[in-house]
Design goal:
The structure is a homodimer of 282-residue chains.
Chain A: E1 6-13, E2 16-25, E3 30-39, E4 49-53, H1 61-66, H2 69-76, E5 79-82, H3 121-135, E6 143-148, H4 150-161, E7 169-172, H5 182-192, H6 196-199, H7 204-209, E8 218-223, H8 229-233, H9 236-245, E9 249-254, H10 261-280
Parallel strand pairs in A: 4-5, 4-6, 6-7, 7-8, 8-9
Antiparallel strand pairs in A: 1-2, 2-3, 3-5
Helix pairs in contact in A: 2-10
């Protein structure tokens, strides 16, 4: 059954169009907003779809307005879907802190009170929105996934759990080992409780170490002036595991760049080109 | 005497750096913030400087984060200065409306109470900030100017009043005839009082009709889906005058684009390339 979608905004940008939609999510039990970029429909009737997952504090609009991805996407003929980072609304549990609650869903399914009632971002993306883009938005092409920081964690976890759904995965400054860094531990404790076995189901390092089936090409960019690099990110941990299990991962340390969208804007075209090479092949 | 500048932020972006500065403006009698993009200093030791003036409700960061201009500016070796759109602070007169007061300085010198105490954006840009970029930031190259909506009005007025200071001027969806459209009339009435002779000193149509001295090349882009086109913008009025007085103006109507930064992002590279051809020549 098609999902009921309300079009909130549309803007021509480069040779494509940026849309913003609202819909009621039966997975999250709340209204959700997402953004979608479509390249020129006349030139690209069945574009591949890149999922972009944003970081802590973001909603669907940060990447939309700040990354400048539409220029390359319009040229390459790539669609981009930009979901929100958590359930939203006055009925949805929240805290004052910016690294937990609304804007900080960590792309997992919460098991603990009061979070479990709404915080099921993994199922929302993996089932509801994945179905919506095909049934209601008519996407029939292949998918890839990318993200930033908490969204880099989300993209890696989503791809490692569902290698059949994506052709490739990339991340900017991802949280690769949330169960062993403060941001992740704080969130996993709240959303998942004390059981570290449950935590490991949402940890890219653990998932890659135990991966089975197809390995997807991974590109990670990390700025060496990122203030969160040492305590929260530590991408070399994932590189070490990738080498051990022979997973095709490229980590690029970019000198002078920080954690901001200025960093993302500087390399987003290269990420789109990276994905394009895998999305083009049947 | 060098101005005292406080560096608030800096971010590497593409092959350049985005800075944000704060300083006390003796013209505006308040603290002011501006942003500055510099291309790679090793490659471009004396870059030309493009002034960007933003529209209603904006501050220095809208263009910085949303226009994606740094990519082309880094490649071309062009610096960009992005001032705020009005004086700021609790001591500065303001109203609830978004089209008057803070965020809506209209790049003029107010004469009326309570605005005259702080609202002198024209002198701030034309004298204080123009001196600051040379004395304190060390710019020695040529200047160009551009802007959006109210900032397009500002860029045109600034260039028409000071053709010796700029090599070229461009605008996205500018207010070209503020004294005869609601946004401009509302602001001019408040800032300048009832004397329409005074209004005409801040109206690009009037200034171009009476221009003397050097004519600067002008490029204007206007989206035909812009909701403000008919009532507030009317660029054909300026085209008519330019044809009459033989002023070198190019107006491009861009089909499907609206008034947003998505429109600006789509054509900013072409504007930078337009300015570059005049900035390169000695």
């Amino acid at each position: 059954m098609p999902h009921e979608l309300t079009l909130l905004e549309q803007h021509k940008v480069f040779d494509g169009c940026q849309y913003r939609y609202r819909h009621y999510s039966t997975t999250l039990n709340c209204e959700m907003t997402f953004s979608l970029f479509l390249p020129n429909k006349k030139k690209f009737s069945s574009p591949p779809l890149l999922w972009w997952l944003s970081g802590l504090t973001c909603n669907d609009e940060n990447f939309t307005t700040k990354a400048g991805a539409q220029q390359a996407a319009a040229r390459l003929g790539m669609a981009i879907i930009m979901p929100d980072t958590s359930p939203r609304g006055p009925e949805v549990a929240d805290v004052k802190e910016w690294d937990l609650g609304q804007g900080a869903g960590f792309y997992l399914n919460a098991t603990q009170t009061p979070w479990a009632a709404h915080y099921r971002m993994y199922d929302y993306l993996n089932e509801e929105l994945y179905s919506l883009v095909q049934v209601s938005l008519g996407f029939t092409g292949p998918h890839a996934i990318a993200g930033h920081s908490m969204g880099g964690h989300g993209a890696l976890v989503m791809a490692l759990k569902n290698p059949h759904k994506f052709r490739s995965v990339s991340a900017f400054a991802p949280i690769v080992n949330p169960m062993d860094v403060p941001w992740g531990q704080n969130a996993f404790q709240a959303y998942l409780g004390n059981n570290r076995d449950l935590w490991s189901e949402w940890d890219a390092c653990k998932l890659m170490a135990d991966y089975q089936g197809t390995a997807l090409p991974v590109l990670i960019d990390q700025g060496d002036e990122d203030p969160f690099l040492q305590q929260q990110l530590q991408p070399e941990k994932l590189v070490e595991i990738a080498e051990k299990v022979n997973y095709p991962l490229t980590l690029r340390i970019q000198p002078g760049y920080d954690h901001s969208y200025y960093f993302i804007a500087s390399f987003i075209e290269e990420h789109l080109t990276f994905h394009q090479q895998y999305l083009q092949n049947a």
